[in-house]
Amino acid sequence: DKDVFKYYADGEWRVSASGKSVTITNPSTRQPQYKVQACTQEEVNKALESAKAAQKLWAKVPLWKRAEALHKAAAILKQHKDPIAKCLVKEIAKPAKDAVSEVVRSGDLISYCAEEGVRILSEGKLLVSDSFPGNDRNKLCLASKIPLGVVLCIPPFNYPVNLAVSKIAPALIAGNSVVLKPPTQGAVAGLHMVHCFHEAGFPKGLISCITGKGSEIGDFLTMHPGVNCISFTGGDTGIAISKKAGMVPLQMELGGKDACIVLEDADLDLVAANVIKGGFSYSGQRCTAVKVILVMESVADALVERVNAKVSKLKVGAPEDDCDITAVVSESSAKFIEGLVMDAKEKGATFCQEYKREGNLIWPLLLDHVRPDMRIAWEEPFGPVLPVIRINSIEEGIHHCNASNFALQGCVFTRDINKAIMISDAMETGTVQINSAPARGPDHFPFQGLRDSGIGSQGITNSINMMTKVKSTVINLP
Ligand code: G3P
């Protein structure tokens, strides 16, 4: 039926032979918003065959032309920022302003990636043999980076455009083809984004966007022999993928429990501003959100007071009105968050605000005097609920960070640069921010999760390199 968005394969918009669709529920209204095709495994097979064929030709397209096509897609994406942002508002309840900036940031990422790709992929290595014992100078090794083949890109609901292009652009500039499996919520924003690449004139079959039920095509895609690399961002589905995937390079980012360590000499107004931005932006639904505050006891009351004053000013409501706190993405997410809150209540946490939920809308909540026996000290709510743990030494704070299963980012607030560097060295996370909340951006910075937070490294340069392999040609001289 006409109001089901088509999927994209072989340079065309198509209706699935399944005759079935997947409904996207608007988190704010909890009503059906859009429908997308429920593609079949046969349609997945065809898309992967086309991707394989198209990739061989794309790898021969001169690097500058590949970059030119990406710059075009970036420009078209930015031109369409408003309709794409509207999809984000309706599908994932992203506040309108944040939705527009996600699209603009994505255009910038694509362009930066094109430039970076031209630079780093034009360089190879010439190695001579006589540097190794027993060898004469009679072997010349020409080593260069070549594409992996077909890259399966699986972005999460919270950045269905930005975390899609952060996989697609590196893959394409490196000469790979791409199969995009968007999150159900965010799929229509993803399809609109793909249309920008279509308009930019990428070859047929090089890019496809397959929508459908995870139960139907999820494993089929991630275990498919036609896939040469998987780049996944999301929740613990990623752990399952890493166990089932074949012998292919994996780039996984699986969430975090970013800690914010606050020392006695910290600028508490700066901390409070960053706790609000870091803990409550997009209702806490960010991998790099501040997810636990570890504050020295002696300054804890002063910090909690400042944070509470700012929490009371947060606007709660519709994403269309640019509210700070909007509905979390689904009823199951809201229920999970509520479970963590109720557990903290039973175990005696101090509620700085009344707990309040209407449907998927949860009012921002700061929990004080949280202790390690409470689930919220360790689990990732992915919601506007933030625990405060009071510590009596820096070592206690570092211990808590390093005892977590997650190891994505973290931050420390202090005026003492020596302590800041010591704490950064001691925290086992991929990134430590000094005197600012954790964040993935700017997007050319390295970005990696360790332990349960992921595999491999992101950030534009790392992603380009991760989607290539080294090819060596050795010239043997007499
Ligand atoms: O949740 C995705 C994670 O990458 C967060 O990104 O840019 O909000 O720090 P960002």
TrEMBL record:
<dbReference type="InterPro" id="IPR051020">
    <property type="entry name" value="ALDH-related_metabolic_enz"/>
</dbReference>
<dbReference type="InterPro" id="IPR016160">
    <property type="entry name" value="Ald_DH_CS_CYS"/>
</dbReference>
<dbReference type="InterPro" id="IPR029510">
    <property type="entry name" value="Ald_DH_CS_GLU"/>
</dbReference>
<feature type="domain" description="Aldehyde dehydrogenase">
    <location>
        <begin position="13"/>
        <end position="472"/>
    </location>
</feature>
<dbReference type="GO" id="GO:0005737">
    <property type="term" value="C:cytoplasm"/>
</dbReference>
<protein>
    <recommendedName>
        <fullName>NADP-dependent glyceraldehyde-3-phosphate dehydrogenase</fullName>
        <ecNumber>1.2.1.9</ecNumber>
    </recommendedName>
</protein>
<keyword id="KW-0963">Cytoplasm</keyword>
<keyword id="KW-0521">NADP</keyword>
<dbReference type="GO" id="GO:0008911">
    <property type="term" value="F:lactaldehyde dehydrogenase (NAD+) activity"/>
</dbReference>
<dbReference type="InterPro" id="IPR016163">
    <property type="entry name" value="Ald_DH_C"/>
</dbReference>
<dbReference type="InterPro" id="IPR016161">
    <property type="entry name" value="Ald_DH/histidinol_DH"/>
</dbReference>
<comment type="similarity">
    <text>Belongs to the aldehyde dehydrogenase family.</text>
</comment>
<dbReference type="InterPro" id="IPR015590">
    <property type="entry name" value="Aldehyde_DH_dom"/>
</dbReference>
<feature type="active site">
    <location>
        <position position="253"/>
    </location>
</feature>
<dbReference type="Pfam" id="PF00171">
    <property type="entry name" value="Aldedh"/>
</dbReference>
<dbReference type="InterPro" id="IPR016162">
    <property type="entry name" value="Ald_DH_N"/>
</dbReference>
<dbReference type="GO" id="GO:0008886">
    <property type="term" value="F:glyceraldehyde-3-phosphate dehydrogenase (NADP+) (non-phosphorylating) activity"/>
</dbReference>
<keyword id="KW-0560">Oxidoreductase</keyword>
